[in-house]
């Protein structure tokens, strides 16, 4: 299990406002196999969030997720929907467990979440011929006071744009051989984007995989930071520096679905073929 820890001291007691924007487009595909999710978590219930909104971490937690399905005529669409639906119920249960101290238990919480969703996809995929081999990626972020905890499997992505550095960092690891080559400096970003095997997954939920071993980690955040969850369709059309330019652009009005919609539209104009999803969270 790969853990990533990035610590900002003395921020655990601080609360922030979060703003979020979500957008998705099926591109030229007949179905949209991407799904995304926003939830507000409190001890009593889970509230589904709209595509755009804002809230405070003072008294509640927030969770966001992107999933990209695969398999069969409609199996991929079904797989990503099952994934986010299961996530809603499992996060509600996990929120109560987190009262014991999520900073201690988050790796176990996410590992259990991913394993249970994996088992569900495998069960359904083995029970219905039209769902055979279906699977999904999943990238999920859980925001508490001062900390963002995440779990990830597949080639959807989680980016972090720290306010102090003005840079863009891909926190998630693409679960592909091409992703490994890029992380280890064997190929550059341009070569990774055009590699013929860039979409061949080594790990995913369901899809006949025997074991699930998600990447988990934590990021301490502060005002001005941005986070982006996206499906692989988005990065088919945009380099990292282009994503950074759009998210840091002063021209982007902080209303409606602007940040996410601008990313999706820019990617579709360049690539346009695949399902494309973006979910942007800004800390203030």
Question: Care to describe what's here?
Answer:
The two termini are 31 Å apart. The chain has a single domain, classed as PPM-type phosphatase domain (Phosphatase 2c, domain 1, 4-Layer Sandwich). The chain is 32% helix and 29% strand. The N terminus is likely disordered. The protein has seven helices and 15 strands. It is globular. A hairpin with a 4-residue loop joins strand 3 and strand 4. The strands form two sheets. Strands 1, 3, 4, 6, 7, 8, 9, 12 and 13 form a nine-stranded mixed beta sheet that branches. It is an alpha+beta fold.
What is the compact description of this entry?
The chain has 284 residues and is of the alpha+beta class. The chain has seven helices and 15 strands.
Based on CA atoms alone, the radius of gyration comes out at 18 Å
From N to C, what is the helix and strand string?
A: EEEEEEHHEEEEEHHEEEHHHE
- CATH-assigned fold name: Phosphatase 2c, domain 1
Counting DSSP H or I runs of 4 or more residues, the number of helices is 7
Helix content: 25-40%
Number of strands: 15
- In CATH's first tier, which class applies? Alpha Beta
Question: What overall form do the CA principal axes indicate?
Answer: globular
How large is the share of residues in beta strands? 25-35%
Which structural class is indicated by helix and strand composition? alpha+beta
Tally of distinct domains: 1
Strand count, sense and barrel status of the largest sheet are: 9 strands, mixed
User: pLDDT average, as an integer?
Assistant: 87
Low-confidence stretches: 1-5
Q: Terminal Cα separation, in Å?
A: 31 Å
The CATH homologous superfamily name equals: PPM-type phosphatase domain
């Amino acid at each position: 299990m790969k853990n990533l820890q990035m610590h900002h001291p003395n921020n655990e007691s601080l609360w922030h406002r979060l703003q979020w924007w979500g957008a998705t487009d099926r591109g030229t595909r007949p179905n949209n196999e991407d799904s995304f999710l926003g939830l507000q978590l409190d001890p009593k219930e889970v509230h589904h969030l709209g595509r755009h909104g804002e809230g405070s971490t003072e008294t509640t937690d927030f969770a966001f997720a992107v999933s990209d399905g695969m398999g069969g005529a409609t199996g991929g669409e079904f797989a990503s929907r099952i994934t986010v639906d299961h996530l809603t119920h499992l996060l509600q249960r996990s929120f109560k467990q987190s009262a014991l101290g999520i900073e201690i238990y988050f790796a176990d919480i996410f590992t259990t979440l991913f394993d249970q969703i994996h088992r569900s996809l495998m069960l359904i995929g083995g029970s219905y011929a039209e769902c055979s081999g279906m699977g999904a990626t999943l990238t999920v972020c859980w925001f508490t006071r001062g900390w963002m905890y995440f779990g990830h499997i597949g080639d959807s992505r989680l980016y972090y744009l720290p306010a102090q550095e003005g840079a863009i960092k891909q926190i998630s690891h693409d679960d592909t051989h091409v992703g490994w080559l890029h992380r280890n400096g064997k190929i550059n970003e341009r070569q990774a984007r055009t590699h013929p095997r860039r979409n061949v997954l080594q790990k995913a939920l369901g899809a006949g995989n025997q074991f699930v071993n998600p990447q988990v980690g934590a990021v301490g955040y502060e005002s001005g930071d941005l986070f982006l969850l996206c499906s692989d369709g988005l990065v088919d059309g945009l380099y990292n520096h282009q994503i950074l330019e759009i998210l840091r652009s002063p021209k982007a009005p902080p209303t409606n679905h602007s940040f996410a919609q601008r990313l999706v539209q820019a990617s579709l104009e360049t690539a346009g073929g695949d399902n494309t999803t973006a979910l942007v969270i800004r800390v203030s």
